[in-house]
Design goal:
Elements lengths: L2 E12 L2 E12 L3 E5 L6 H9 L6 E6 L7 H4 L2 E4 L11 H11 L7 H8 L14 H13 L5 E5 L7 H16 L3 E5 L3 H7 L2 E6 L2 E6 L1 H5 L2 E9 L4 H5 L4 E7 L2 E6 L2 H8 L7 E7 L2 H9 L11
Parallel strand pairs: 3-7, 3-8, 5-6, 6-7
Antiparallel strand pairs: 1-2, 1-4, 8-9, 10-12, 10-13, 11-12
This protein binds adenosine-5'-diphosphate and magnesium ion.
Adenosine-5'-diphosphate (ADP) binds next to strand 2 and helix 1.
């Protein structure tokens, strides 16, 4: 299958602040990937690179094989940003028709997409006067109307009520099944698990886990942590909570009854950890264990 997004070795800094520290992320056509991680993990920066909004500093970023900084490539993208400002005077219909035309599609494409997203009745309304949840659906309609190959959504369900959330996920699932690649960030772990084919956990600008929702949910049960690392056995055995250390090819397997304790001690001190897996409990619990922080907290509004 074609990769609609291929990011390799992405590093990104804001001045002295490192936001991404060597991230790889590929998304195939028809695949939905959820980015999870605590605030400040680098999710928005990673999405910004894929949208072409941020210039890449190091590494490779390709959308459908080409640079998302090129206008022609950007037309293959549908984007819903964390903060979308809406003009006060334009109507929903005008905005979605405008988005269609900018993406090289007929203005008439707006009608079916408004219906798809369930906001046909909002067409004559001024977008700037709508509720946050309604605006979020307008943003989705604008992203979908260009018939994108890749959808990038940063915290798309903030402000949506339960029914609107459900409709939103249904819209995404339909597009995914029609072959669209999707990357979304969210802090709602259960929804990510329900909609995503793959969950990628970011922590301090690195990918600390990448697995199916089922694979991540199975984390912690066997109370075995496996990973690749440059640390030697003696150092690993000295970590608090580690009961045993075994080698399995290039992977190390740590036996423990306290995986959270081991990871909290291990991850901050070892920058060579890769392909980390913990066999055990619920997804949220696993994420806390992986990142040492709860992931479920709202983004602080600017
Ligand atoms: N414009 C910016 N200027 C300076 N630092 C930034 C800027 N944007 C993000 N950062 C920093 O980069 C890191 C990653 O941020 P971000 O990508 O927004 O993470 P997330 O979306 O996961 O919360 C954080 O430490 C954040 O403070
Ligand atoms: Mg963010």
């Amino acid at each position: 299958m074609t990769d609609v997004l291929a990011i390799r070795g992405a590093h990104h800094r804001y001045g002295a602040q490192t936001a991404l520290d060597g991230v790889d992320l590929t998304v195939a056509a028809g695949e939905c990937v959820a980015l999870l991680g605590p605030n400040g993990a680098g999710k928005t920066t990673l999405v910004g690179l894929a949208t072409g909004l941020l210039a890449r500093q190091a590494g490779e970023v390709a959308v459908c094989g080409t640079d998302p900084r090129r206008a022609a490539t950007r037309r293959r993208l549908g984007v819903v940003q964390q903060e979308m400002g809406f003009p006060r005077t334009e109507t929903v219909g005008e905005l979605v028709r405008g988005a269609a035309v900018r993406a090289g599609r007929p203005a008439a494409a707006a009608g079916p997409v408004l219906a798809e997203v369930g906001i046909s009745e909002l067409r004559p309304r001024r977008a700037g006067k709508l509720s946050g949840g309604q605006q979020q659906r307008v943003a989705l309609a604008m992203a979908l109307v260009g018939d994108p190959a890749l959808l990038l959504l940063d915290e798309p369900t903030v402000g949506l009520d339960v029914a609107a959330r459900r409709a939103f996920w249904r819209n995404l699932a339909q597009r995914r099944d029609a072959g669209v690649g999707i990357v979304l960030t969210t802090h709602i772990v259960e929804e990510a698990a329900a909609v995503a084919d793959r969950v990628v956990v970011l922590h301090r600008g690195r990918v600390v886990a990448s697995d199916t929702p089922a694979g991540l949910t199975a984390l912690l049960t066997d109370r075995t942590i496996t990973a690749r690392t440059a640390l030697d056995d003696a150092t690993l055995r000295a970590l608090p909570g580690v009961a045993s250390v075994r080698r399995d090819g290039d992977r190390v397997r740590l036996g423990t009854t306290e995986p959270e304790q081991v990871l909290r001690a291990w991850l901050p001190t070892d920058h060579t950890v890769a392909d980390l897996r913990v066999e055990g409990a619920g997804l949220e619990q696993a994420l806390v264990a992986l990142t040492g922080e709860p992931t479920v907290h709202e983004e602080v509004p600017a």
